[in-house]
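User: Please go through the entry that follows and flag anything odd:
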Amino acid sequence: MDFVRAETRGPYAGAVTSMVGYRQSGVTQRLHRGLPSPYLTLVIALDTPVVVGEREDDAAPVAAYDMLGPLSTHPAYIDQPDTQEGVQLAVHPFASRWLFGAPASRLPGLALDLGDVLGPSAAALRRRVADTDDWSERFAAVREFLATRARTASGAAAVRPRPEVVEGWRWIVAHGGNGRVDDLAAHVALSPRQLRTVFVDELGLGPKVLGRLVRFDRAVGMVRDQVARPGEESLSDAAARAGYSDHAHLVHEFQAMAGTSPSGWLAEERRNIQAGGHGAETG
């Protein structure tokens, strides 16, 4: 089990908040839960397709070598092969226009074949990444792809998000997802209804739902850290620090967004966490 984390540097550091190379063999746990996040997920699989379902027993999952995970409040159920290798990115939704040609609100569903979004350039990127075994060269190929997409963006793809949405995102993250929508609306000089309209138009989510995702993402990081620093903080402590009313509230949110409890998720992901598969919080 091998995870290599790229440094998020350069002009697109804000667009890609995490880039991780992975190489695994002898995988025994067939099911992996892709947790909801305030970021889009891009996976470039080099050996076998990524298979994503909306349920554990999904009879019609999406399968693709190049997979895009839109914003969602539900987990993605990923069928893991015995051996897998590739690169996974966490992409800021404000980069969606120039990177994927449309705002995040126009990317439907739980998983999309990147080829259906970008056409032949998706497969071309995978070939570039697969041309070398060196992780630094693979990451460089991804960075070059990002630079090309940004440089050639035109028309609607080059339009920047509304400043109220940009500032609203910053405000929500600064408050850990716990701020009141009315306070945010006042902060950006919009009515709550206007605020929701501009958020949904750009992200496909209103500010309240985005706040929920940001808070859950922070909570996942705190729960994950219990593996790295056992005994330092209880689940009740993590719940309070993340902004949940109590331990039961955190468990309820995990059940709703992950389909399992915090303890159940840790049991599934402990080996990946110990191997470095889950990095620091991206928010």
Notes: The two ends are 26 Å apart (CA to CA). The first helix runs from residue 96 to 100. The first strand starts at residue 2 and ends at 5. The chain is about 45% helix and 15% strand.
